Please model this.
Amino acid sequence: MNVATTLAEFRELRTQLAGSVGFVPTMGYLHEGHLSLARLARSSCESVVASIFVNPTQFAPTEDLSSYPRNLEQDLELLEKEAVDVVLAPSNNDEFYPPGYDTWVDVGGITQRLEGASRPTHFRGVATIVAKLFNIVRPQRAFFGQKDAQQAIVIQRMIRDLNFDVELVLGPTVREPDGLAMSSRNAYLSKEERPAAKVLHRCLNLVESLYADGERSAETLRQAMLEVLQAESLAQPDYVSVVALDTLEELEMIDGKALVSLAVRFGSTRLIDNTVLPPGQSLF
Ligand code: AMP
Model:
């Protein structure tokens, strides 16, 4: 496995990659969720590139950029085991964002809802870094996790609208045995908060079972999630949502596919999770 810490090094390594290139962008501190995407890429592409870059422009000034967990050495060991060919792990942010940087990819309305309502500049940062990475890596396929469903929807829209010649492949959310979606941010949870965080998955399970029993009122499903969250004293809901997949606008009644998602704070840690209705349907 080759590791490039500069774009010049990466460009040289890129010329040596044969056939279809699968790309797994990450912010590092890797877990099974990331590794499942690397495996998916390995099984369907001739060459696999992963990136590790904690992208500053997707964090608001009040967010956890400086404390975001990092462990490059361990990440590289894990990626090597997945037979990744090249890792792009830039050591200098200026290569992406030189002084005076002011060019942005704004995907519009869908970036203002859900996560975007709570984190207004987040998706501008995400779309911009992913567009840059697509230009640098030039992959045929790019692998994203359903864990960040809105992110995948935004990137899919960007691919379409900016005519990127990249196929987005979505991997399922990988969970801990107790149902908590794996996330680098789970490392922030205290001993007391960690068991409380199971409540996100409980909310989604409840929504799925209400839906299976015939419930189609989105408001009833949102209220059901809020009630479960209110019973967990360490959980502070940020939002609960049941939206249409194409517009991400809140639904009244569910009559097609819907995205159910929630964001919940435990102290200073903010976790997200989601599911698609009808259960078992994919986002795209
Ligand atoms: P991140 O490092 O958090 O930016 O995530 C990098 C990629 O891994 C994104 O496409 C995420 O959606 C995906 N990912 C993160 N957590 C999970 C998970 N638990 N299951 C599946 N994919 C995940």
About this structure: The pocket of adenosine monophosphate is lined by residues 26-27, 33-34, 36-37, 144-145, 147-148, 171, 173-174, 181-184 (CB under 6 Å). The radius of gyration is 19 Å. The mean pLDDT is 97.
